[in-house]
Amino acid sequence: MESNNQQVTNKTDGFYASVYNNFKFTKDKTFSADVSFLYFSSFIQGSYLMEEISSISLGLRKTFWNGRAEVSMHVADILNQQATWLRSDYLNQDNGFYALPENRYFRLGFTYNFGNFKLKSNQKTIDSKERERIN
Description:
The protein is built from one helix and nine strands; from the N terminus they run βββββββββα. It is mainly beta.
């Protein structure tokens, strides 16, 4: 009632950046690491102005047995930087809350590729006499 249906426009400039890099530590490329960085500047979500968010994640991967098995580890949002304030200021109402999403986790994995790796190629070659006969 106090607003008299006054219109309000929320406006902010935003920026999004995502950087990813993969590192190989051994010559045979069986041990590698992934590093990623994510950044959101302040932005509007509904009637709230959300402050900036950033995140750093790290993963390690080691393959064994000629690429048939892999052990991996991944840590997401290492510094727990995806927590942020959301604020809404409208006439005599100042609202806000601290959002702390569950984005931080640790994952450990093991992958084994079943299958027959002893199969040979199914490509067939035609000798020159056979090729002449076909033409």
